[in-house]
Amino acid sequence: MSDHHHHDHHHDHDHSELSETELRVRALETILTEKGYVDPAALDLLIETYETKVGPRNGARVVAKAWSDPAYRERLLQDATAAIAELGYSGRQGEHIVAVENTPATHNMVVCTLCSCYPWSVLGLPPVWYKSAPYRSRTVKEPRAVLADFGVTLPDDTAIRVWDSTAEIRYLVIPMRPAGSEGLSEERLADLVTRDSMIGTGLACAPTEVA
Amino acid sequence: MDGAHDMGGMDGFGPVVPEPNEPAFHAPWERRAFALTLAMARPGGWNIDMSRFARENRSPAEHLSKSYYQIWLAGLEQLMAERGLVTADEIAAGQPLHPRREVAALPPADVAPMLARGGPTDRPSAAPARFKIGDRVRTRTIHPRGHTRLPRYVRGHVGVIELLHGAHVFPDSNARGAGEQPQFLYTVTFDGREIWGDDAEPGLRVSVDAWDSYLEPA
C-alpha cells in the first residue's frame, strides 16, 4: 500500500483535503453500488490491471525487440500499433500508436499539454510529473530546461523534437541503444529501457548501471 | 474553451519534480476514483471527449487547485449529475435518495474485453485528404467556448504537415453530443521560432495533431 503523499509539498494543507476527497469517493462508490451502476468486483479488476499487469515493462520489451531485430524495428516505425500488437499489447489508450526513434541528430519528447494523454498499453498509467502543470506547460517551450530537471543534458547539436499528443495518436519514443549493450539478450536489453526513456525525459541505461 | 487545462507555454509553474519508483496510485481513493470513472462510461453513455470537457470545463482556480484524480472525480460527478444518475444531494447524504436509472453495470467479465477493445477513433473517410506531407498550413485562430483540441500556443501559426493519420472522430462535435463528424487528422510540425520567436531553444521543433478544420493552406 502506498498511502504516502510524497509528491506533495503541502502535507498539512493537503491532508484535510485528501480526507475530504477520500470520504467523497467512498460515498460515491456506495451510491453507485447501491444503485447498481457499478460492480465493485469490476472496479477491483480495473485497479489490478493497471497496478500489476499493464506497465512500462511492455514498452521496454517493444524497444528491446526493435534494438535486436531490424525487421521488427522497420515494422514498428511503419505501423507501431500493429507491431506492438504482435507482442500482445493493445487496447485502451494504445489504439493508435506512432513510434519515434531517437538518433544522435534528433531527440524526441512526448507531452500532452491539454490533458495527460499517454500510451497506457505500453507504459501503464502516467506518472504524476507527466500530468503536472510544470511538465505540460514547459515541455513545448523549453524542453532542454525540462530535461535538466531530469538530470539529462544533450549535446548542443542534437535537435529536440516535441510531440504534443493532442489527438488519440499516442507516441512511444525508441531511445538510442546504449553503448556496451552488444550481444545482450532481448530480456537483458529490456532491463535497460526505463519508462522515462520511452517518454523522452530520460536515456536508456548503460549495462553497467543495471548490473 | 480557453481554460486552465490548456497549459502549453505558460510560465511560473516551477520545476518538474520526478518521483523515484513512483507507484501507480498515491492513495486508496485514487484507485477507486480511477476505477469508478472507467466503469461508469458504459452505463453513463458518455464518450471520451465528453469526459475531457467535463474535466476541463471549470474555473481556472478550481482546475489548478485540484489534483489529477480530483479533477477526474469532479468530471465524473458532473457527467452523472447531467444525466440524473447521481445528484449532488445524494453525494452529500452519502446514500441514494432518488430512484435509480435503468442502466446496466459493467460486469467483471467485461473488464478485460473492454480494455482490450479500447476506443479506436479512426473512421472511414469519404473524401481524400486536403493536405499532403510537406504542405505548409496555418492553424486557424479559433476560440470555441466548447471543447477543442487545438492548443492556444499554436493557433495562427504556420507549420508543415508531417504525418497523415486518416479520418478520426472530431472531438469538438463529439464532446457536445453532435456526433463523430470524422475529419482528416494530421501531425503538423512547427519550428520553435515560429511559436516562441527569438526566445525559442535552438533546434526546437514542436508538433500537434490537428484536424482538418483547424487548418488552412499557408
UniProtKB/TrEMBL annotation, chain A:
Fe(3+) binds at residues 112, 115-117. Its EC number is 4.2.1.84. Residues 1-20 are annotated as: Disordered. Signal peptide: none annotated. Residues 20-201 form the Nitrile hydratase alpha/Thiocyanate hydrolase gamma domain. Keywords: Iron, Lyase, Metal-binding. GO terms for molecular function: nitrile hydratase activity; transition metal ion binding. It catalyses: an aliphatic primary amide = an aliphatic nitrile + H2O. InterPro entries: CN_Hdrase_a/SCN_Hdrase_g_sf, CN_Hdrtase_a/SCN_Hdrlase_g, CN_Hdrtase_asu/SCN_Hdrlase_gsu, Nitrile_hydratase_asu. NCBIfam families: nitrile_alph. Belongs to the nitrile hydratase subunit alpha family. This is nitrile hydratase.
From TrEMBL, chain B:
It catalyses: an aliphatic primary amide = an aliphatic nitrile + H2O. Its EC number is 4.2.1.84. It holds the Pfam family NHase_beta_C. This is Nitrile hydratase subunit beta. The keyword Lyase applies. It comes from Rhodopseudomonas palustris. NHase catalyzes the hydration of various nitrile compounds to the corresponding amides. Residues 1-106 form the Nitrile hydratase beta subunit-like N-terminal domain. It is an enzyme of class 4 (lyase). It comes from the Bacteria. Signal peptide: none annotated. The gene is nthB. SUPFAM superfamilies: Electron transport accessory proteins. GO terms for molecular function: nitrile hydratase activity; transition metal ion binding.
